[in-house]
Predict the 3D structure of the following.
Amino acid sequence: MALDEIKIGGLGASRRRVEDNRFIRGKGNYIDDIALPWMLHMEILRSPLAHARIRSIDVSAAWAIPGVRMVLTGDMLAARNLAWMPTLSYDTQAVLATDKVRFQGQEVACVVADDPYIAKDGCEAIVVDYEPLPPIVNPSQAKAPGAPLIRDDKTGQDSNVVFDWEVGDREGTDRAFAQADVVSTIDMHYPRSHPSPIEACGSIADFNRATSKLTVYMTTQAPHIIRAAVALVAELPEHMIRIVSPDLGGGFGNKVPVYPGYVVSILASILLECPVKWIEDKSGNLISTGFGRDIYLKGEMALRNDGRILGVRMHTDSDHGAFFSDAQPSKFKIGLMHSAFSCYDVPAAHLTAQGVYTNKAPGGVAYRCSFRVTEAMYFQERMVQAAAADLGMDQAEFRRINLVRDDDFPHRTPWGFLTDSGQYGKCLDLGLEAIGYEDFLRQKEEARQRGRLLGIGISTMTEPLGAGNSREYDILGIKMFDSAELKVHMTGKALLRTGAKTQGQGHETTWAQIVAHELGIPAEDVLVEEGDTDTAPFGMGTYASRSTPVAGAAVAMVSRKIRAKARKIAAHLLEVSEEDVEWELGRFSVRGAPDRGVTIQECAIAAYSNMPDGMEPGLENNAYYDPPNLTWPFACYIATVEVDPETGVWDVLRVVAVDDCGVRINPMIVEGQIMGGLTEAYAMANMQFITFDEDGNCIGSNYMDYLLPTAWETPGFELHEVVTPCPHHPIGAKGIGECATVGGPAAFVNAVIDAIGDTGVRNIDMPLLPDRVHEAITQGHDVSGAPPVRTEP
Amino acid sequence: MSTLFEEVRPSDGGAGDAVPVRRVELTVNGERRAADVEPRLLLAHLLRNGFRLTGTHTGCDTTNCGACTVLYDGVPVKSCTMFAVQADGHEVLTVEGLATASELHPIQEGFKDEHGLQCGFCTPGMMLAAKALLEEKPNPSEDEIRWALSGNLCRCTGYQNIVKAVMWAAEKLGANVESDGADDAGDDAGGEG
Amino acid sequence: MYPSRFRYEAPSTVAEAVAMLAAADGEAKILAGGQSLIPMMKLRFAAPAMIVDINGIGGLDYHRSDPDGTYRIGALCRHADLEKSAALADAQPTIAAAAPVVADPLVRTRGTLVGSVCHADPQGDWASVMVSLEGAIVAQGPNGRRSIQVADLIDGPFQTVLAPDEIAVEAVIPAARGARAGGYLKLERRVGDFATVGVAVSVEMSGGSVARAGIGLTAVGPATINASDAAAALVGTALDSDAVDAAAQLAAEAAQPRSDHRGSADYKRHVVATFVRRIGAQIQRSEQEAA
């Protein structure tokens, strides 16, 4: 009799998480929990100014403090050719500033001491003499004639422009606009945001002079990429570097890049020949590490009166901060911005993009998204709402008319991606039914008669997840595969390692479920390990919702390799030919004689004790999976809100989410991902942003100003599902980790704009602060949130 | 620090270098502990680095995130916003003190069963804030739970499952109380609570 | 995250504490709840040479009413003590309204009203509440005790008229000349956020009209604002909507907000007026329900 897949924790089981056993006991092993013998502690001194020339740095008082073991400055690094490091976007970034500081919070010096309190004392004792320079905090300042040149360190860089880039069919799009009945336009800014995992970054570098081996424990979502980067930057042999990523207190893209703190802690360990620990504080994390978004849109849509979209034009201006260190693996300067409108049937589209340097923190990251997909889908869904309004058409109906139909796959998107599956109309209809669309429209009208403002916002989108196929992706030329290694022990228990790195997604639980599905080994018999480059197979890490699409696929593939070998062993044990062996979950049997069979566990012991002649012993293998395409989940998010017309405060009434991420490995975990994503969407729409004043001071560099919602404000979520298996993924799964963060914000913003629809306001930039909403209601104009913030009395 | 010796800097004639430390004695998870600490040492750091109770996390530097929440004489506090010296003579309960040797606290079970955690970093603080709530209000409403946990930030879960986890624990604790009453088992049989 | 070094003293009496402060030459800070002081020390915005921890001083954790109706709140009475007090809701409705919205639930278990008032943060809630109640702080120094009206106590952002060797030992709210009513409304984006705007309105109703009124404004000026003209506009009225409108207008004029990332100055003034109206309407509604 076949095993019950749910009972053994296979596909579809809401298996309780293995990793929780240590987390609920306070026995996780996060970076700051690791202590090595004779370990010293490092703290970073940061620039208080956004743009200034460094006249001098006096470190003598810091050296004089008892317990201070080393003070490092840019000059010391420059002497070792380490003052600058290469970025993932082919630029350079200062490790410690030598010539100028280029953003507030930039790393200027590091102090290593017996404990972090003393290291901080040391930082405070350093005297830096700055000559202030005018700061630049937005693209128009960056491009203004006579603007100060931020990157005067780069030869040939004579402006603050980082890149100009375009994609699409310019002429065809022009023709579409010439034929339009209506052209709908909208301008907006997607504010700078920060992934802000509750745990900030940190590292412990441990260089052993005797063996020349460097071990670095660090908060990284991509340990193997870090190993390669360290090999390049520090010019150490790659096999003598071991990166260990311990339990991560969240990542969300923030723990992908290489940060100066990591680099200096490594150097300090090499110089001091002892372990050096750097634990970033939250303020340092928010002010200096990988941000998300900060991009401006001019969007135009060519529309026919019957509601059809004829063409789309987008122009984006992106603010990259002081160094172009976007941590993104796509081959496109503006990431996957041109995945916008992938769920709609749009005949012609053209995108131009320009990026600039500013005096702000560098290092755009894919904050809970594939790079720029969040902005793409937000712009798309805001443009769609404005277009429906311009046509005087119901927003749901406008979407229904333009969504790609089920029989239209594979579908070439307006900018050339290939989507392969989905039931977009079904998801929309399910969402509308769940929220009670028609009823709500009636309630809204009744409320309006009584002076109350209700609104409903819809966001529908498909997004490219799972970086990625080599047509669209690489990291410094390396293809974006991932890997799995499976060792089935003789007792049928197994060890699985992958090149991904969990940060809360529950890989230790779900990967075992894939093995259970493929081999019938109960999930509880499979130990999953990740994050140690000395033991894990080479992989590209976890971000861009790539774990399930790529590493998860590798887990399935390696399990199938194991099964293929086990089948040969089974044939040998059953004394039949391989063709006469049939597989059912967990067991091989003889065709036509189902009672004669052997379990996978019996094959495992035989692999070490009784294998066929000529067969290598053992039941171990690995798989490297290079995905043929991205996966394209679809989502429909609908929010209803009530706006207080007197104060501009808005409250969420309900949120309905319909997600189609293909086959769900662990439904409980998938739903957890969706709820977490929706919360970040709500946060961005409502309160969470980083902005700057005209002096370049970062506002949002701590949790007093950078607001994450609490349990009190965060609304409840009603989840629904549609399952359209991914046609090219071994188990039919698609990415899910970021969908709600990507698609969610537009639902909230569309709802608020819908609520104040009578004002004619088309846009309020996120976050929809009460002040901004109130201004839109009372003044009847769009409200921009672009920095600098207004600080006049 | 070694008990046999402590390295000091070679004297340069000055005599005022000695850093004053104070002896603190406190009860941590039911066990009496003592340490000599600098007054500036935060309670969170004494627990983590002094007593190696690393389940108490520090997630921010502005007293907002609540990852460091412990029970101080039974009251939930942010241990990053107290000095260790203030704990002298007091009782502290950390996440490590929630479970007994043989069984988990129902709050721990609830967090696991309702998927109330993902990365796990905020979880110890959440659970201790929840424990304080349930001791005060054994049957809290959803709003009361959300209110009581609003000093603890979570970035992963969206709180919905955390709320369910606390409700799960409330139910189990309630059932324990009832069954304790029913079989008149006295104080010890109920385990923790 | 790592405070600077300081000397630590934990006196067991107020007199001892005063002596320590006097010896510290203005370099000492008092640690009560510490929920504002310690965060500032962690960021090294504050680095006092000495900390005088008063948590070990007995008998300061009370809040109670004198027989004559005078209300006293000791220096170690925590926000949570006020929040959880059933008696307070009737006796001191403005305080009862403010207590649950101060900071967050965990900060409230440690932080104190007296400490918050003396911290003199323009964004602090309690000072506005106390101003609206004509409350005072009792300070003890080497020469004994004195009482200072909260409206006079604060003389700038994070500045008070307390002498370096004085300790605030209690807050005192004078007895009402009628039935108390009042409220506190705070615009914040999430629990624990600093107020964008906070408004405290306290009235004492006698014979259907307002015998005394006070209005305090949070986060709309360089210090807590005592909107006394606005409050005066309520006295003698039946708290009708015209009177409340007039007070709302005057309160908005008394505000001195600054535009920042939380909102424009005009918006904050508008919210001040709106909140005065809303609290006025709340009081009226409950008066009507009572009648």
Notes: The first helix of chain C runs from residue 14 to 23. The domain at 179-290 of chain C is CATH 3.30.390.50 (Enolase-like; domain 1). The mean pLDDT of chain C is 97.
